[in-house]
Amino acid sequence: MKTITLFEGDGIGPEITSSVIQILEACKLPLQFEKYDIGQTAYEKCGELIPNESIESIKRNKVALKAPVTTPIGKGFRSVNVQLRMIFDLYANVRPAKLLPNIKSRYENIDLIVFRENTEDLYIGEETVISPDEVHAIKKITRKSSERIIRSAFEYAADHHRNKVTCVHKANILKKSDGLFLEIFNQIKEEYPQIEANDLIVDNACMQLVMKPEQFDILVMPNLYGDILSDLTSGLIGGLGLLPSAQWNDEYAVFEAVHGSAPDIAGKNIANPTALLLSACMMLDYLGFQTEATQIRNAINKTLENIDQCTKDIGGKSSTTDYTQAIINNL
């Protein structure tokens, strides 16, 4: 029996978490869940965004499933997601964007993955006030972090029969920092001659993604570009409500939906659990339950064939509860 740390999150988090757990239980997997609070809910209970017991649970179980959380605004708190990345050194943020059946999109045949370096770049949050009219921010790129995210992208490509890895950068302007990232990419690609490798300046990459996204397979990039481009890729497939995500290193893994906690629709039984469910499928793959992960993905696809069974945000008429039950029926 494998124990998973579970964070139900805030806003719609508890509703979509309940949906995902019901579907996982229908697969009769040898999993059990250890539930803790983080985010707004935790802060209201104990005055901490990430209580120590929640951190210890991840350390103990090594794997966590996390619904969206709210970081209180205007109180000087750093994002809960950023804190978790720093605490556990979750250097790889992996976000697959695959077009699902019957979802309205301008495109076809989209099946790409963003590998985002997750621990440095501008996200270290180091800013210096030079004067009331001038602020400097530090962009941090290191060989260690660049090597491990780039190698992770190539290893994933090799293990999952992916054919191409694209490095996204701005080395034409940031010749030292992004230049280092690109230099390391060009070194590592030589170790994987069976995989096509190319690089694109980030503005060109954005243009290419909206003109011909089917040309991409795996994209690897520093933190800030990864944040922006992964949201862009979610727009190619129907929005953040359909985009799964994982953060991991060699010891720990956190699987999560990257969309917000949507407090405006919380408690209305209309939230779409697909992103969190697909994140849970990534978790099953990670744990070695690939057969069950595939079964759940197939059940989602089967459910989408009858759009009326889906939630309203993707054109359906069903509640969260009804959509969940339809997926279970299709299992």
Structural account:
The protein has two domains: 1-97 and 238-331, Isopropylmalate Dehydrogenase, CATH 3.40.718; 105-237, Isopropylmalate Dehydrogenase (3-Layer(aba) Sandwich), CATH 3.40.718.10. The radius of gyration is 20 Å and the shape is globular. The two termini are 22 Å apart. By secondary structure, the chain is of the alpha/beta class. The strands form two sheets. Strands 2-1-3-12-11-4-5-10-8-9 form a ten-stranded mixed beta sheet, with helices on both faces. A two-stranded antiparallel ribbon has the order 6-7. It is 40% helix and 20% strand. Pfam families: Iso_dh.
SSE topology sketch:
Blueprint: E1 2-7, H1 13-26, E2 31-36, H2 40-46, H3 52-61, E3 63-66, H4 80-88, E4 92-98, E5 111-117, E6 127-131, E7 134-137, H5 143-159, E8 164-169, H6 177-188, E9 196-201, H7 202-211, E10 218-221, H8 223-237, E11 244-248, E12 253-257, H9 274-287, H10 290-304, H11 320-330
Parallel strand pairs: 1-2, 1-3, 3-12, 5-10, 8-9, 8-10
Antiparallel strand pairs: 4-5, 4-11, 6-7, 11-12
GO molecular function: isocitrate dehydrogenase (NAD+) activity; magnesium ion binding; NAD binding
Organism: Anaerorhabdus furcosa
Domain Isopropylmalate dehydrogenase-like: 3-327
Name the descriptors.
single chain, 331 residues, alpha/beta, Isopropylmalate Dehydrogenase, 2 domains, 10-stranded mixed sheet, two-stranded antiparallel ribbon, 11 helices, 12 strands, 40% helix, IsoCit/isopropylmalate_DH_CS, NAD binding, oxidoreductase, isocitrate dehydrogenase (NAD+) activity, Isocitrate dehydrogenase (NAD+)
